[in-house]
Amino acid sequence: MKILFLCTDNYTRSITAEFCLVNYLKKNNLSHIEVQSAGFKSNSDLSSFSSIHFDRMDQLSIDTSNFKRTQFNKEFFEEFSVIVGMGKEHKDYILQEYGKRIYLFNEIYKKEEISLVVPPPDEDGSYLEEIKNMVDYIHNAMPKFVENLSLIQVQT
């Protein structure tokens, strides 16, 4: 099974999901799943983005050394058996632009159509803690996420 995590910039949510899943698969000697991530705007300017999610993954001993951003393209529908949007906006975009349905991360993990949200920067810096919490959420979700993957219908 090949899974693609999809978000806007391919920098925070989808990258975190990719590396957390790769880490989980490696630690559990699971080789039946391949994983990658992509974004609709993978060429966006990252100069104002926080790297706190990379710091948190490092604290969790998740190797992110292979980090690279990938631009989403329509050929991914043929290459990947499951495409997972991180937010409802990604699911809606795919349906509108390509007429295809994809899953949300939380649809697979919790069977709930709820977006994973990256908080915007705020003056007091509380968004940094929210991003750390998002990494922990994704990291902790992986056992159930992988278990639930077997229950979903593969996209065609």
From TrEMBL:
InterPro entries noted in UniProt: LMW_PTPase, Ptyr_pPase, Ptyr_pPase_sf
UniProt superkingdom: Bacteria
SUPFAM superfamilies the UniProt entry points to: Phosphotyrosine protein phosphatases I (SSF52788)
SMART domains recorded: LMWPc
One Pfam family matching this protein: LMWPc
Residues in Phosphotyrosine protein phosphatase I domain copies: 1-148
PANTHER family xrefs: LOW MOLECULAR WEIGHT PROTEIN TYROSINE PHOSPHATASE, LOW MOLECULAR WEIGHT PROTEIN-TYROSINE-PHOSPHATASE ETP-RELATED
Protein name, entry field: Phosphotyrosine protein phosphatase I domain-containing protein
Biological source species: Bacillus spongiae
